[in-house]
Amino acid sequence: MDRSISAGIIGIILAVFLSFSIPVQPPLDFIPAFVVVIFVIYIFRLVTLKDGLVASFMTYLFDVGIVSTLNYAQYYNAQFPGFTVNVASLLDPLIFAVSSLAAAYIGVYLAKRRVAPPPKTPQQSTDIPPDLQTV
Q1: In this structure, is the dihedral angle defined by the CA atoms of residues 120, 125, 130 and 132, taken in order, positive or negative?
Q2: Phi/psi at 8 (nearest 5 deg)?
Q3: DSSP 9-69
Q4: Of 99, 79, 124, 123, nearest to 37 (Cα)?
Q5: How many Å apart are CA 62 and CA 124, to the nearest integer?
Q6: Residues 63, 18: contact at Cβ < 8 Å?
Q7: 102 pLDDT exceeds 80?
Q8: How far apart are alpha carbons 56 and 28 in whole angstroms?
Q9: pLDDT digit string (tens) for 46-92?
Q10: How far apart are CA 13 and CA 29, in angstroms?
Q11: Is 0.90 surpassed by the pTM of this model?
């Protein structure tokens, strides 16, 4: 569980950075967090769905919270001549929830298929006594 929380924290940092680096309009604004979640789950080798969901929900929740708060702060104390609510902004929470589940599942699937690192070779015994070994 500690690896999934640390993966979620790294995911938050990367997702917020990517969200501000690549401006995306509301129907597709889940894509930066989606890509980051799959990447983080793959790198941290989270092979259980529970750990993948923890990392995914942490990343999505904080990414949406930080980015949305800063976006809505732009509208504070300003005139709203062209500000309207459209279908994309109403479906945005549903899209985020479904894509979070999908990203966790895809990331865990890819992490399971990842080749395990080769095992370390055991120390070879030598015939030289330990007190005569210089290295």
Answers
A1: negative
A2: -65, -40
A3: HHHHHHHHHHHHHS---GGGTTHHHHHHHHHHHHHHT--SHHHHHHHHHHHHHHHHHHHHH
A4: 99
A5: 49
A6: no
A7: yes
A8: 17
A9: 999 999 999 999 999 999 888 888 877 777 766 666 666 778 778 88
A10: 16
A11: no
Q: What share of the chain is helix, strand, coil (3-state, %, to 5)?
A: 70, 0, 30
Q: What is the pLDDT of residue 106?
A: 96
Please tell me the distance from the alpha carbon of residue 32 to that of residue 9, in angstroms, as a whole number: 15
The token pair at 19 is 């969200």
Residue with tokens 């929740």: 61
Closest alpha carbon to 67 in 97, 23, 99 = 23
pLDDT at 72: 75
